Amino acid sequence: MTFFEKAEALKKQFNTTQEEAINIANKCEIEKATKRIQAELDLYQKYGYKKDIFVYFLIRDWEDVNKRLDALRKYKWFKPHGQPYRNFNDKHQVIPQWQKDMAHWMNKHNIYFSCEFKDFEPRKGFKCKEYFK
Question: Do 129 and 73 belong together in one domain?
Protein backbone atom coordinates (compact mmCIF):
# COMPACT_ATOMS: atom_id res chain seq x y z
CA MET A 1 0.00 0.00 0.00
CA THR A 2 1.46 3.36 -1.00
CA PHE A 3 1.59 6.41 1.25
CA PHE A 4 -1.32 8.08 -0.55
CA GLU A 5 -3.40 4.90 -0.47
CA LYS A 6 -2.89 4.81 3.31
CA ALA A 7 -3.94 8.45 3.54
CA GLU A 8 -7.06 7.75 1.46
CA ALA A 9 -7.96 4.79 3.71
CA LEU A 10 -7.50 6.96 6.82
CA LYS A 11 -9.66 9.66 5.26
CA LYS A 12 -12.51 7.19 4.78
CA GLN A 13 -12.04 5.45 8.14
CA PHE A 14 -11.97 8.59 10.28
CA ASN A 15 -14.09 10.86 8.06
CA THR A 16 -11.34 13.51 7.87
CA THR A 17 -10.13 15.92 5.24
CA GLN A 18 -7.45 14.86 2.78
CA GLU A 19 -4.85 17.09 4.52
CA GLU A 20 -5.64 15.65 7.99
CA ALA A 21 -5.40 12.11 6.61
CA ILE A 22 -2.03 12.89 4.98
CA ASN A 23 -0.79 14.35 8.28
CA ILE A 24 -1.81 11.18 10.17
CA ALA A 25 -0.18 8.91 7.58
CA ASN A 26 2.92 11.11 7.54
CA LYS A 27 3.32 10.88 11.34
CA CYS A 28 3.12 7.08 11.17
CA GLU A 29 5.73 6.99 8.41
CA ILE A 30 8.03 9.41 10.26
CA GLU A 31 7.86 7.36 13.46
CA LYS A 32 8.79 4.20 11.53
CA ALA A 33 11.60 6.04 9.74
CA THR A 34 13.00 7.42 13.03
CA LYS A 35 13.09 3.93 14.53
CA ARG A 36 14.77 2.60 11.40
CA ILE A 37 17.37 5.39 11.42
CA GLN A 38 18.00 4.83 15.13
CA ALA A 39 18.52 1.09 14.59
CA GLU A 40 20.95 1.74 11.74
CA LEU A 41 22.87 4.33 13.77
CA ASP A 42 23.11 1.81 16.64
CA LEU A 43 24.64 -0.70 14.23
CA TYR A 44 27.10 1.89 12.94
CA GLN A 45 28.06 2.70 16.51
CA LYS A 46 28.39 -0.97 17.42
CA TYR A 47 30.84 -1.61 14.59
CA GLY A 48 32.87 1.55 15.15
CA TYR A 49 31.73 3.65 12.19
CA LYS A 50 33.00 7.20 12.80
CA LYS A 51 32.12 9.19 9.66
CA ASP A 52 29.37 11.77 9.60
CA ILE A 53 25.88 10.69 8.57
CA PHE A 54 23.72 13.38 7.01
CA VAL A 55 19.93 13.13 7.54
CA TYR A 56 17.38 15.48 6.01
CA PHE A 57 14.51 16.73 8.23
CA LEU A 58 11.35 18.38 7.00
CA ILE A 59 10.34 20.80 9.75
CA ARG A 60 6.56 20.89 9.80
CA ASP A 61 5.12 19.79 13.12
CA TRP A 62 6.54 21.06 16.44
CA GLU A 63 6.09 17.90 18.54
CA ASP A 64 7.18 15.58 15.77
CA VAL A 65 10.47 17.30 14.97
CA ASN A 66 11.37 17.61 18.66
CA LYS A 67 10.67 13.93 19.26
CA ARG A 68 12.82 12.91 16.27
CA LEU A 69 15.72 15.15 17.26
CA ASP A 70 15.64 14.02 20.89
CA ALA A 71 15.80 10.39 19.77
CA LEU A 72 18.76 10.98 17.43
CA ARG A 73 20.74 13.71 19.21
CA LYS A 74 22.86 11.24 21.21
CA TYR A 75 24.77 10.25 18.06
CA LYS A 76 27.57 12.82 17.78
CA TRP A 77 28.36 11.96 14.15
CA PHE A 78 24.71 12.32 13.14
CA LYS A 79 24.35 15.57 11.16
CA PRO A 80 20.78 16.78 10.67
CA HIS A 81 19.78 19.21 7.96
CA GLY A 82 16.48 20.98 8.54
CA GLN A 83 14.22 22.51 5.93
CA PRO A 84 11.03 24.38 6.91
CA TYR A 85 7.91 23.01 5.26
CA ARG A 86 6.79 24.96 2.20
CA ASN A 87 3.50 24.48 0.44
CA PHE A 88 4.21 25.33 -3.19
CA ASN A 89 0.49 25.54 -3.96
CA ASP A 90 0.05 28.43 -1.50
CA LYS A 91 1.76 31.50 -2.93
CA HIS A 92 1.02 33.54 0.20
CA GLN A 93 2.25 31.03 2.76
CA VAL A 94 4.21 32.53 5.63
CA ILE A 95 6.78 30.16 7.14
CA PRO A 96 6.54 30.31 10.95
CA GLN A 97 9.53 31.88 12.68
CA TRP A 98 10.07 28.82 14.89
CA GLN A 99 10.65 26.70 11.75
CA LYS A 100 13.23 29.17 10.44
CA ASP A 101 14.98 29.32 13.83
CA MET A 102 15.01 25.53 14.16
CA ALA A 103 16.48 25.14 10.67
CA HIS A 104 19.15 27.71 11.53
CA TRP A 105 20.01 25.86 14.77
CA MET A 106 20.01 22.43 13.09
CA ASN A 107 22.04 23.39 10.05
CA LYS A 108 24.85 25.00 12.03
CA HIS A 109 26.26 21.81 13.52
CA ASN A 110 28.61 23.61 15.89
CA ILE A 111 25.54 25.32 17.42
CA TYR A 112 23.40 22.15 17.28
CA PHE A 113 25.91 20.19 19.36
CA SER A 114 26.77 23.02 21.75
CA CYS A 115 23.26 23.81 23.01
CA GLU A 116 19.69 22.59 22.99
CA PHE A 117 17.10 24.35 20.85
CA LYS A 118 15.46 26.02 23.86
CA ASP A 119 18.82 27.64 24.76
CA PHE A 120 19.55 28.81 21.21
CA GLU A 121 19.56 32.59 20.69
CA PRO A 122 18.89 33.28 16.98
CA ARG A 123 18.40 36.99 17.53
CA LYS A 124 19.82 39.27 20.18
CA GLY A 125 17.62 39.16 23.29
CA PHE A 126 15.47 36.24 22.10
CA LYS A 127 15.92 32.64 23.20
CA CYS A 128 13.96 29.80 21.65
CA LYS A 129 12.64 28.74 25.05
CA GLU A 130 9.89 31.28 24.31
CA TYR A 131 8.46 28.77 21.81
CA PHE A 132 7.98 26.23 24.59
CA LYS A 133 5.52 28.42 26.55
Answer: yes
Distance CA 101, CA 63 (A): 15
Q: How many helices (H) and strands (E) does the chain have?
A: 5, 2
pLDDT band at 5 (very low <50, low <70, confident <90, very high): low
Count of domains forming the chain:
2
Residues 6+ apart with CB under 8 A from 104: 111, 122
DSSP 108: S
Q: In terms of C-beta density within 10 A (0-12 exposed, 13-18 middle, 19 or more buried), how is residue 67 classed?
A: middle
pTM of the model: 0.72
- Average pLDDT in the chain: 80
Stretch (H or E) spanning 83: strand 78-84
| Size (the chain), residues | 133
Range of the domain at 119: 51-133
Asked if 105 and 122 count as a contact pair (C-beta separation under 8 A), the reply is: yes
Answer yes or no: do 80 and 23 share one domain.
Answer: no
